[in-house]
Design brief:
The protein is α/β, with parallel strands linked by helices. It folds into two domains: 225 residues, Glutaconate Coenzyme A-transferase (3-Layer(aba) Sandwich); 232 residues, Glutaconate Coenzyme A-transferase (3-Layer(aba) Sandwich), CATH 3.40.1080. It has 17 helices and 26 strands.
């Protein structure tokens, strides 16, 4: 028995107690090449006991590369599961977003086939069967779902995230349920909706961030459940980097902008629902709001990080809607569990298909704030591929919010650290090496240098504003020289709406690859990069 009750307490559909197994007893259910669906969204709410047992089975029996799966999860999960699977060559395909040194290496080395997709689209397309079309059944072969409880009629009560559980249950007939008794039950915190297929897809009538339109569990036929496994593993939430002067400066620029918009009457005094991505900058923005003058704030987002608890403690946040409680393993989750009675009533956890759905995002007027790899002078953004080829994690849900929000913002340091250049790598470039978000989807670009408000601004104006407000001082003259040259040559040819010189647009990237710095000595294409 754990501190949070017994398996018998949590499984209220008593007929399922006859299907209780140890994790290792489920191993015969798994066959090479299977399509697997997992619960989870970021390192929260994902299955642990069974995936760990499978990894141990592979390691003990030297089955690396001989027991491989196609893995479909709402987003990334804990490194002790998918990253360990990557080490053991247990992943063939992985959709749509991942985190981990080894799984990223497998993707970039070509051993793991990864696909990327806007998360709201991934959720619905999974339910439509688009990812399992080539299998004999056209469905998932097996699912592993972590739950807090199973209701009397077999309904599944998720733990710390909603993920794509409804869509998995649509297309899977064999389910292993991990009942996590190693943490308090999350029952009552969820708003789970099973979306119909077109043309009868229902209206998502969410008119304020805390409104509920679904139920606290996901319907599940008990006959589909082939095993019930008790788990006492807690989420291995990621620890984010400490806030530094750069992230705090970015946060201050955003908060000053909000104050200006309130004064101008373009935002209400309590702002509009906030969406914030993952990482230290996002944490700093939310942390800064805890000290800012705004009250009665609301959040409609996909992840809640540690500083969201600070905002709740400040009394300035009324309600937060999210897909995932993406807290750190220490001190985030322990802090939440110790104060669960206080926090739980102000948090709504939804499935991905609702948390990231365009309809409520646009209706509520969400303020979207996300961090790119790089941004170019015309406000295209790269969120996924370093140098245009090396996958980091994936697109995630940033595009869902940037396309549909009321204010769409990208925040990034003006430069990132580099071993070979004290200034670092410029995050503002002539043209992104890969484009995930187009210029049409961004309203503001923010760095520690300043904020460029791009609303109603034409491309050439936009480029000068981004360079002036956001570029690192060491890179401003380099970027300005490029823009002057591009304007002159393109306008002379009467093709100057958005000037680019394609023989030079990526010269800063190429120089970084060859010489370890983006500080090119000139834009002349007739000289070698090393001169």
């Amino acid at each position: 028995m754990s501190n949070y009750g017994t398996l018998q307490d949590r499984v209220r559909c008593k007929s399922l107690l006859s299907k209780v197994m140890k994790p290792e007893e489920t191993i015969p259910f798994f066959k090479n090449g299977m399509n697997l669906g997992w619960s989870g969204f970021t390192p929260a709410g994902y299955p642990k006991a069974v995936p760990i047992a499978l990894a141990e089975h592979v390691e003990k029996n030297n089955l690396q590369g001989k027991l491989k799966f196609n893995l479909f999860v709402g987003a990334s999960v804990g490194a002790e599961t998918e990253d360990r699977w990557a080490v053991n060559d247990m992943i063939d395909r992985r959709w749509p977003y991942q985190t981990g040194k080894n799984i990223a290496a497998g993707i970039n080395e070509g051993r793991i086939r990864m696909g990327d997709k806007h998360l709201s689209l991934f959720a619905q397309d999974l339910g439509y069967g688009f990812y399992t079309m080539e299998s004999e059944s056209g469905r998932l072969d097996l699912a592993i779902i972590e739950v807090s409880a199973i209701t009397e009629d077999g309904g599944l009560v998720p733990t710390s995230s909603g993920g794509v559980i409804p869509e998995i249950l649509m297309i899977c007939d064999r389910i292993i349920v991990e009942v996590n008794t190693g943490q308090p039950s999350f029952e009552g915190m969820h708003d789970m909706v099973v979306c119909n297929h077109p043309p009868k897809r229902q209206i998502l009538g969410i008119t304020h961030a805390g409104e509920r339109i679904g139920s606290t569990s996901v319907p599940c036929d008990p006959n589909k459940i082939i095993a019930v496994v008790e788990s006492r593993h807690r989420d291995k939430g990621r620890a984010f980097a400490e806030q530094d002067d750069t992230s705090e400066a970015i946060a201050n620029n955003i908060i000053d902008f909000f104050s200006h918009e309130v004064k101008a009457g373009r935002l209400p005094k309590n702002l509009l629902p906030l969406q914030s991505g993952v990482g230290s900058i996002a944490n700093a923005v939310i942390g800064g709001l805890a000290k800012a003058p705004f009250r009665n704030l609301t959040v409609y987002t996909e992840v809640l990080q540690d500083t969201m608890l600070d905002l709740l403690d400040s009394g300035k946040l009324d309600v937060a809607s999210s897909c995932s409680l993406s807290l750190s393993e220490e001190p985030g989750f322990p802090r939440f569990f110790d104060n669960m009675d206080k926090y739980a009533g102000k948090i709504v956890l939804r499935p991905l298909s609702i948390s990231n759905a365009p309809e409520p995002i646009r209706r509520l007027g969400v303020i979207a704030m996300n961090t790119p790899v790089e941004i170019d002078i015309y406000a295209h953004a790269n969120s996924t591929l370093v140098g245009g080829t090396r996958m980091i994690n994936g697109l995630g849900g940033s595009g869902d919010f940037l396309r549909n929000g009321y204010l769409k913002m990208m925040h990034t340091p003006s430069s990132r650290p580099s071993k070979s250049d004290p200034t670092g790598i410029s995050c503002v470039v002539p043209h992104c090496s890969h484009i995930d978000h187009t210029e049409h989807d961004l309203d503001c670009v923010v760095t520690e240098q300043g904020l460029a408000d791009l609303r109603g601004v034409a491309p050439k104006e936009r480029a000068r504003r981004i360079i002036d407000k956001c570029a690192h001082p060491d890179y401003k003259p380099i970027l300005t020289e490029y823009l002057d040259m591009a304007e002159k040559e393109c306008l002379a040819r009467k093709v100057g709406h958005e000037p680019q010189l394609w023989d030079r647009a990526f010269k800063m990237h190429l120089n970084l690859t060859q010489n370890g710095t983006m500080k090119i000595k000139n834009w002349d294409i007739k000289v070698d990069l090393c001169e």
